[in-house]
Amino acid sequence: xxxxxxxxxxxxxxxxxxxxxxxxxxxxxxxxxxxxxxxxxxxxxxxxxxxxxxxxxxxxx
Length: 61
What we know:
This is Transposase. By secondary structure, this protein is an all-alpha fold.
């Protein structure tokens, strides 16, 4: 049972880190969009997909 609980805790931590990275990438992309940076540059530095960048651009208009 302890191994199962440890595995669940590890998975939860990994999921939390992934969510945190996504939030940081999204925040960076939004800042860059507001600063009118080129889309290619935003994709390069945020590592978000072009589709996600365009979604964010629509949201902040």
